[in-house]
């Protein structure tokens, strides 16, 4: 291969890679959606609208970054919603009922999230209980703990400084939570793209056996990702608590599914090793736009969840179809039949998400 | 015998994107014959048989496929199966958590809703017997060895009582002994009128088995060999695309200091398997190539895995005088041990990553700066490895999934050697690799030894092992049964020392 030729091909390759990267598709879909809503209802896209969408996005967005990294590492966390709730409640309880300084109480909340993540990680990795079961269990445990602490009553009032920070709008009318989300997303994206542990995380999710043979401490990576996921879930919950100015038991309810749906729409694979923070975050944004858009164009909010569900399935379906395009058929035919007649995680994985 | 070929393809042209992989290939397979399909890695052999088996469906290529004289449209693998075309793909493809029966009879588990487990097990038993396998039909496939999985794939193809059987490198996980046994089985099947198309890189199998052969090169048929043309020389030349003189580089091991020292190594068998290592001790010296011989399940791979720390072990492993901690391969790696594993798909390739990233994943430290990846440096390293090993890939960023088997293997060798290990463990380094490239790998191994590395090689092909190595260990049932240096022994000696401890009828079964 001559260098000149390979360089020419390199550029083309790079263009193709960007298009194939999974992010292009979801970004395109987002643009089309926005234009469509705008055409139907010119009021859509007003500054207030955008602001509402972005602030609603920020809490779930923060959590999604942890979930994306965890998914790429080959695990997932269904307990993020109730972790967010419990952390917020613990922090609220500490500052409202125990006279603990706000900063310390917030740290306490974050610590709760980290601890929950650690427990999830240890249960999944060391006791070898599938993440689906382990974190589903944790979802209930954390939710129950929230009830035990609050007895169903919101914790109110919180020190003034909490709402001062939670309701401040330092940039373009957006809160600190949004700023935090942007920072976390950028850091997460850099981590996955340009650092050694980030790259290693893809190997861990792609094939843990191979990763181990390459010298990687697979268990540490997985546990680390669980801790990160728990901590960021706590952060999301704490920001919402600040914004509400009270420790409400409904914080985080149902978030886990929204987060997973969003990042999957953004091209993050449920089977590990595939995806990016940018893609996942755009997926989250897309779902948010759909929900707000439906309201703005006057469709009953009751339809929102139907839309969310359909879009998720559609997105994954499109993705599978697109990956098959150049070849018109799955590459491992005999497995495809095997997969059809019996669940074959490996085969299904590659058919659904094999990276191009 | 009829005149009609059991299977015929005419002028097949197949492209992937802008690359044309088959450029007008025609081939005929007579019933009752075993026909070899030979050629270098990436020549298009697997692609051709995927067309014959409906994997690449009608419409994705041009050309004609005829079964029993009539033109057929194969759009899905099921179509081919219904027409009696059995297919054993190159990559072992089993569903780990299902039983042997379920894997063998997959897609054909009786009709309707009722699944008669016992009848299915009985059918499976017959098929296994046919292949000389003694494993129980209810065994979970996850505990089977690579070789057993490969035989299982063949049983799956035979389950359809096909008229045509297409085998894409069926012996890559088998040792010579099992390969010969499989050969007998195929001969028997051919005698019943089955037409068999047989892809292999092993010269000896072509000599022993084939009634004729077609040689592909860069997507074209370059030679049709009849039985009388099939001499070792012609085959090698045809497969390599050039004359290969001195397959094995001449070498003399001058003697060196002890690099790796293994004492009382023990590895317990994985659940459901019987392959173990018991009380094995040996040394390997700098510049020395140690070969490990044995049958299936003799514990050869387990021995390498034990030394590398990939599986729990007892006993001690010492590199350069320092004991290596067990428990995790990273200890072995930081002591300078590198290992190439046997199963590309399960323990080698990362299908979610590009060719480049597959190469560098074990050496990220050397392509990064304070934890940040140096992309330009990584690409440089990747291009060098791909260039040095002549890996045929569309580009460094392409997926490893579509590389031909031999090229995947070269890529993994590149990954293993990248950190420049001083002790190198190679489990079947030429698995699925063409003759020309084999010579290249032998030279590479030789060069590594000359530079002072200590190598331990497991190979199922005895002539390869005998040609490449300086000293040999023979394993049987996990124990060391013989040891000799080059010149002191031959294939006979190895087989004899194995036979002394293993009853003959256990040859293929394990
Ligand atoms: N699905 C695919 N998409 C793109 N390229 C492909 C695909 N399948 C095969 N190729 C390319 O086609 C060429 C021929 O591949 P093929 O697998 O047929 O080779 P082969 O003769 O079987 O080699 P080997 O002996 O190594 O198994 C290779 O260069 C390979 O990269
Ligand atoms: Mg092939």
Keywords:
heterodimer, A: 356 residues, mainly alpha, ABC transporter involved in vitamin B12 uptake, BtuC, globular, disordered N terminus, disordered C terminus, B: 510 residues, alpha/beta, six-stranded mixed sheet, 22 strands, 32% helix, binds adenosine-5'-triphosphate, binds magnesium ion
Quick synopsis:
The complex is a heterodimer of chains A (356) and B (510). By secondary structure, chain A is mainly alpha-helical.
Description:
The complex is a heterodimer of chains A (356) and B (510). Chain A is an all-alpha fold. Chain A has one domain (22-351): ABC transporter involved in vitamin B12 uptake, BtuC. Chain A has helices spanning 3-20, 23-40, 47-72, 80-97, 102-125, 131-150, 160-166, 176-194, 196-206, 208-213, 218-244, 255-265, 277-296, 304-324, 333-341, 345-353. The longest helix of chain A has 27 residues, at 218-244. With 510 residues, chain B is an alpha/beta fold. Helices cover 32% and strands 25% of the residues of chain B. A six-stranded mixed sheet of chain B has the order 6-7-8-3-9-10, sandwiched between helices. A six-stranded mixed sheet of chain B has the order 16-19-20-13-21-22, sandwiched between helices. The longest helix of chain B has 16 residues, at 176-191. The complex binds adenosine-5'-triphosphate and magnesium ion. Magnesium ion (MG) binds next to α1 of chain B. The site of magnesium ion has 6 residues of chain B, from α1. Chain B: Keywords: ATP-binding, Nucleotide-binding, Repeat, Transport. Chain B: Residues 7-243, 262-502 form the ABC transporter domain. Chain B: GO terms for molecular function: ATP binding; ATP hydrolysis activity.
